[in-house]
Inverse folding.
């Protein structure tokens, strides 16, 4: 583990810059209005604890100041974010990401603005202890959940932590991150296992299977199942949630032992890619 300091600025945009102020700072604004009434983005970094084993950390806090402004020439545009990460040993590196902004109409059934990341992987690399890494953004931590799309309410400043990790450059890294083994729905239909690609490259998991440490409880991923860098999916016992991949065992009985067991993710060769002990089998944190 290492302590690092992060900071960021908004150097450029694909929009007409005639109404923009604050480019090349950590607080960019736009719109035909006084600065205090413009919409805009803010990025605030800070001191964070960083591991190089795929553990997530807060890269910084993103705020969208979403205020009514006169119509823009472009409703959708990109704003670039440049992030500097400085480690305690003096190693420093700059990373960049692009935020895609959708300035939706302020009326209608869905007036919220939307912010997306066209790519979740920085094009830049940093070498630490002889290994090359890239920064992968997992998503925005909004309302306690990590989401891939930031939904911004009108007429307020809306914030979320930007959750990221350091991934080995040029490699996928698929792991089980959580087992929700005590469901509350009838017959525990809402049990699920969460799987994430912590790598910097897409991972094709077609034909892989997920199961408990017992026979007859395997879920096989269908052809065409590809996890993008930083992407999370869930496999439910008997529910379907499109926002997390839509995967389900589709069985009318509990799958995961309420006392504890080990979830296994295996590839098409039968090799264990990731195992996750939970409950009574959980390995204590040293």
């Amino acid at each position: 583990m290492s302590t690092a300091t992060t900071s960021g600025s908004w150097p450029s945009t694909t929009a007409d810059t005639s109404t923009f102020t604050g480019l090349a700072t950590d607080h960019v604004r736009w719109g035909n209005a006084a600065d205090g009434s413009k919409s805009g983005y803010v990025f605030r970094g800070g001191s964070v604890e960083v591991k190089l084993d795929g553990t997530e950390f807060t890269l910084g806090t993103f705020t969208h100041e979403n205020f009514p402004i006169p119509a823009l020439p472009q409703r959708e545009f990109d704003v670039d974010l440049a992030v500097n990460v400085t480690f305690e040993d003096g190693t420093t590196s700059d990373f960049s990401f692009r935020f895609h902004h959708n300035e939706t109409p302020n009326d209608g059934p869905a007036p919220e603005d939307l912010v997306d990341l066209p790519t979740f992987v920085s094009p830049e690399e940093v070498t630490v202890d002889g290994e090359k890494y890239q920064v992968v953004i997992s998503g925005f931590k909004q309302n306690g959940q990590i989401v891939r799309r930031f939904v911004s309410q009108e007429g307020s400043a809306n914030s979320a932590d930007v959750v990221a990790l350091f991934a080995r450059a040029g490699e996928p890294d698929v792991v089980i991150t959580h087992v929700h083994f005590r469901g509350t729905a009838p017959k525990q239909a809402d049990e699920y296992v969460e799987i994430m690609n912590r790598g910097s490259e897409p991972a094709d998991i077609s034909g892989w299977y997920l199961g408990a440490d017992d026979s007859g409880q395997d879920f096989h991923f269908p052809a065409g199942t590809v996890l993008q860098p930083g992407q999370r999916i869930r496999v439910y016992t008997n529910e379907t949630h499109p926002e997390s991949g839509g995967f389900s065992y589709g069985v009318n009985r509990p799958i995961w032992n309420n006392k504890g067991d080990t979830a296994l993710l295996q590839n098409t060769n039968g090799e264990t890619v990731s195992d996750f002990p939970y409950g009574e089998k959980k390995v204590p944190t040293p």
